[in-house]
Design goal:
Layout (H helix, E strand, L loop, with lengths): L2 H21 L3 H4 L1 H93 L4
Protein name: Transmembrane protein
């Protein structure tokens, strides 16, 4: 065999091997298994997204509970204020009661003065 022909054959054989290998796509890189892995990763990511949405929703629920609690606090403050208003009304009423008692006392004093005056007038001018 001639050395030139032998090298030609080797080149042809290497060329055929290279082209045949390059045309094949390994199953592990682009096959259905890797697609399933990517899909499962996407599923895990979507689960994580749903979980984070659930976390945000639970945070929103806790915030709304806090809002309701603060509303309840404001309502209880309003209740205390209304109790204070009722107490102040009661204080005003008791002041009015004391004033009316004082008025009655003054009326009684004036009446007793009038009675004393009429008694005094009767004493000065006997009717008999």
């Amino acid at each position: 065999m001639q050395p030139g022909v032998r090298s030609e054959r080797r080149r042809d054989k290497l060329f055929v091997q290279k082209t045949s290998c390059s045309r094949r796509e390994p199953a592990s890189a682009y096959g259905p298994k890797s697609i399933a892995i990517y899909q499962s990763i996407a599923i895990y990511q979507s689960i994580a997204i749903y979980q984070s949405i659930a976390i945000y929703q639970s945070i929103a629920i806790y915030q709304s509970i806090a809002i309701y609690q603060s509303i309840a606090i404001y309502q209880s403050i309003a209740i205390y204020q209304s109790i204070a208003i009722y107490q102040s009304i009661a204080i005003y009423q008791s002041i009015a009661i004391y004033q009316s008692i004082a008025i009655y006392q003054f009326i009684a004093i004036y009446q007793s003065i009038a009675i004393y005056q009429s008694i005094a007038k009767r004493a000065e001018f006997p009717v008999d």
